[in-house]
Amino acid sequence: MARVKLRWLVLIVALVALALAGGFLLLQRPGHKVAAEKIRFRLQWFPQAQFAGYIVANALGYYAQRGLDVEVRPAGPDLKPQMAVAAGTDDIAVGVSNQVIAARSNGVPLVIIAQLFQDSANRYVLKKKNAIGSLTDLRGRKVGLWLGGDEAEFVAMLKTVGMTLNDVVVVPEGFSVTPFLHDEYVLSQVTTYNELIQIQDQGYGDDKLQVLSPGSYEAAIVSDMVFTTEQFLKNHRDASRKFLEASLEGWLYCIENPDEAVDIVLKSNPELRREHQTKQLRAVLGLIWSGEARTKGIGYMDAAYYRTAEKVLFGSGQIKNHVDASTVFDASVWNEINSTEKLPRSP
Q1: Residue 48 falls in which region: left (phi positive, over 0), alpha (psi -120 to 50) or beta
Q2: Segment holding 224, helix H or strand E
Q3: Which of 101, 141, 201, 346 has CA 20 to 30 A from 37's CA?
Q4: What is the mean pLDDT of residues 165-186?
Q5: Percent helix, strand, coil in the chain (nearest 5)?
Q6: Which CA distances in Å does 154 have to 168, 215, 232, 316?
Q7: How confident is the model at residue 23, as a pLDDT?
Q8: Do 260 and 281 belong together in one domain?
């Protein structure tokens, strides 16, 4: 009886081994689909040309080709990507570098894995009739600013001439350029890819505007970047690399095929206007395909960017604790992609 039981036990073990082997072979069989790895990806705003590279990468299957199932999630005024990523409800997101620096100042280990915009997207505009020779000419005058931390650059700009926000009359800006057009304040904070275009469309070309760049005052906070948490990057390094590689391929497509990229963006959000999105993409590509990125590859990160941003944030009181600029970003995944010569560079 014991020998019979033993034979049955051996037979069962053999059958289980064959079943497992068959399952393994099935997974290896050509055409068999392996479940894609899910990534919850958060934009910084609603879908528009500002995020064309990611929208294109998703639409053209660049993520899927790498075994990723990427859910592109919109944001809005009441949803902060840095908070969603920190809480673990999103995996990767687009944001502005000051968000990561502020998070790290508070002990939250967010980390930048690619710096898409090589400059601040913010500009500060005046009508030519209100043009200034120095920032001191703004003393006592009304200026429109986005608050809640977005005024940090302007605070740093004023500091270069010994002024503070108390020396001007701050008017909180909304999402409309109408108050500026109606002279409710003389200076308006804008982005190159949105509000500046809207103002220009109202007949204010370069000959009718004075445009101030924070970079001219060593106060620029580099804008759009891709970030995640240190823990997600550690636990999902391969997926992070594939995501970033596909995203950069999407941006390369936008550089080479801007009209087609706008088509894809419009399909993702039919409420958008083609003319505005075409201009927006042109402005965005000007921020991406510039500076060091032209020789070192799109998405290039430099500690100097974050030292400047950290200095601006600390000097304006936006952060209370200093942050080591070298901890703000992790270039290891980007370097792996860059080493394959897949990132575009100028000749």
Answers
A1: beta
A2: strand 224-229
A3: 101
A4: 96
A5: 50, 15, 35
A6: 11, 11, 34, 9
A7: 44
A8: yes
Q: Which residues contact 223 (CB under 8 A, 6 or more apart)?
A: 96, 97, 117, 119, 120, 121, 122, 287
Residue 19 scores a pLDDT above 70: no
Domain boundary (193, 217, 241) is at 217
Residues 333, 316, single domain; the answer is yes
Same domain, 229 and 140: no
What pLDDT score was predicted for residue 20? 39
Looking at the structure, tell me whether residues 75 and 129 fall in a common domain.
Answer: no
> Measuring CA to CA, how many Å separate 338 from each of 15, 234, 295, 296?
48, 19, 11, 8
Could you tell me which residues come within 8 angstroms of residue 67 by beta carbon, excluding any fewer than 6 positions away?
A: 34, 36, 37, 242
Q: Are residues 232 and 327 in the same domain?
A: yes
SS3 213: coil
Tokens of 304: 């100097």
* Lookup: tokens for 261: 């990229």
SS3 labels along 301-334: CCHHHHHHHHHHHHHCCCCCCCCCHHHCECCHHH
| CATH number for position 53 | 3.40.190.10
Contact between 250 and 71 under an 8 Å Cβ cutoff? The reply is no
Phi, psi angle pair for 182, to nearest 5°: -90, 10
The predicted structure's pLDDT at residue 149: 87
Query: Which of 327, 347, 342, 319 has the alpha carbon at shortest distance from 149?
Result: 319
Q: What are phi and psi of 4, to 5 degrees?
A: -65, -45
